[in-house]
Amino acid sequence: MRVSYEWLKSMVDVPEDPQDLVREFVRTGTEVEAVERVGADITNVVTSQVVEKVPHPDSDHMFVCKMDVGMRNVDENGNPVPVQVVCGAQNFEKGDKTVTALVGATLPGDVKIKKGKLRGVESYGMNCSSRELGMDSDHSGIMILPADTPVGLDFIEWKGMSDTVIDCEITPNRPDCLSMCGMAVEVSAMLDEDTHMDLPSIQNESADFGRTADLVDVKIDDPELCGRYTARVVRNVKIGPSPEWLARRVIAAGARPINNVVDVTNYVMFLTGQPLHAFDLGKLAERDGKRHIVVRAAKDGERLTTLDEQERELTSDMVVITDDGNAPVALAGVMGGLNSDIDEDTVDVLLESAVFDSGHVSRASRNLDLMSEASIRFERQVDGEKCALVSDIAAALFEQCCGAQVCEGMVDEYPAPVAAPQIELRPDRVRTLCGAPIETGFMARRLERLGCTVMRGADEHAAMQVVAPTNRPDLTREIDLVEEVLRLWGEGDVEPTLPAARNHAGGLTVEQQRLRKIGRVLRSSGLSETSTYNFADPRDLEMLGMSEEGRGVPVKIMRPLVADQSEMRRDMIPGLLRSVAYNLDHGVSNVHLYEIGRVFFGSEHKSQPEEPSFVAGVMCGAWNDDQWNRKYPNLDFFDAKGIVENLLEALRITKVRFKVADPGKYGWLQPGRAAEVIAQGELLGWVGNIHPMSLKNFDIDVPVIAFELSVKALLRLAKRELPYEDVPTLPGVSIDLALVVGEDMSFEQVTQRIKSAGGKLLSDVQLFDVYRDPVRVGKGKKSMAFSLTYRAADHTLTSEEVDKAHNKLVTKVMKSTGGEVRS
After folding, report:
1. Mean pLDDT across the chain, nearest whole number?
2. Residue 608, exposed/middle/buried by CB under 10 A (0-12, 13-18, 19+)?
3. How confident is the model at residue 504 (pLDDT cuts 50, 70, 90)?
4. Dihedral of CA 542/546/550/555: which sign?
5. Is 474 labelled as part of a ligand binding site?
6. Cβ neighbours, 10 Å, residue 398
7. Do 29 and 73 share a domain, yes or no?
8. Looking at the structure, do residues 622 and 769 belong to the same domain, yes or no?
9. pTM above the 0.85 mark?
């Protein structure tokens, strides 16, 4: 939300220095992304006077002018000298005061003014129109200033166009702050100042111009799609450039002036937070002397050409405004249609002020990749109670800025009015929860500043009855009011104290200690902790290639803020892959992330979902960027496997083995580069390369290795200490064994058979070589060389004992693997 400081000043008293207000915003929970100066992009533009105007010698429409710019252009003796400017405008005469951009000037859009020649005549500047100065849309000629305007002044300073814009990051739960009125109320509560908002009112609403109810009929097919729809008609609008003050405020809010009708609707939206839409009444079909507006769900395959001149295919989960139920004339809450837009021939306007379902608007906006200022506000919930008031404000501005005549009354379809919530607030409870001596009077006063109606009790301790404003959907419970009181009082002013406890020595539980150890081990292994959304896209498992079997039923969010976060996540990997994609898109090629969090498995027969915890990690690129003297290899399966091994070793989990993952069961993992992690016969999770097709669905084109382990299993199998084993004091005997086996025999299978056949004397098995050669070893076979260590705990082995044990091992292993000893 772009907050114009000059505009805000007209609504509430604010500090002289905008930085003081910025600090208050941050203190009370509103993040500020940037502070910028409006008009800073316009330099070396001055007021001037035409002292000479002669026709261009080689043009029938241009003039060679001498422009008095005062002391902005002087001769070598310091005396003012007029500047020669070639100008093609037709709306000025000698003696007129205007605006000139001198050589070296900068105009909006980073336009640089340079010395030039126009048909052979040198020009040392440019006389400017108001559109070239970014003030409005008028480019019919250069700006003509009042006759008493001094010359040679900096135009931006003289015009008072300099402004400070504070760009605030508004959280989804605060739709009230997506308007200047809302920000004024917020600032009023922050600073404990009165607001003084002077909203325009209709001067002449008359049945002589017609009655809106006689001209328009409105029908809402489904109140779930549209909670309220108001329509008002204004006649005889005169399309043209907006007044300077209106254009300036629209620009400060981040929009571009178009014409007075469109600018009024944009201005009112920025002022109140209520998006409006203006239809050309003459372009709507007439039946029985009326235009019939029908709000309904779109039909699959239905098409609408929006104002950006793009034809869009609609689906049944979108909402449309239709002309008599037939052709759509607008995509509700997102953008109007080209078939009913305002143009220079428009005479009569149908003004819409309505409230549409946030979920439908969100899905339509994202599915069509069509985000607008209106959709942003509808997604976060617009206050239906204000629709009629906002329509009146807009009609008053049509009178003022467009010369319009306002028809009597409005059509107002409001099938299910929203009641403001009534909440009991206990002052003593507030003080207990906040741990701060907040006065009851402070609570009541600041809540009233926020727009609440407060009925105080008999004394400081009695409960207050609070009616929350309808534009604050986040205020529904007592704890919501407690949060508002605390943030305005100042969380930083709460004195830190230890929680009260009796006969209890503080400390972490064993589970907490082990959870922290998991994080420490992963961080020491080179991963960075992250936190992704618990909300998920319903397509996540499908995009990943993961079966829904064993994942329960999805836990749906009743009122999702955005369409692609409409259910709770059932796996953590999709969120981590989106983090990888985000980093890659922003130039970070080496990504090493882990997260410890919950997933949610719903059940048709249970009211509450299961919420198991998992630890998951993703890795791509290399460990470090290449240096001039060192190249780092790309990460692979064994890097992730090593991290998992580090973690299990740190938790003292024994009898760990890695089993080749079945491609049919792990469809999101690359076959041959994935393994199940098993400990003490229990499946802990998996580790492996994400399948390239899955990566493509998340817009990732580099290999990614990942792992996911059950936290519950890790905590259950973890031990505080391992059984003590003496350091071997007796010598061992090492023998190398090279076995030729089929390619289908894995390292794990061969190792298990060796250990099983080795008995008590075999103390260690290490693989040190794998060799393939179709001639020397055989096609479809491989040679695996192991180093075997034999040792007895109570005596030194004799050669006879070792030979006997080794020969027995070789015989058993050859039989169980179908292999042979390589000579």
Report:
1. 91
2. exposed
3. low
4. negative
5. yes
6. 27
7. no
8. no
9. no
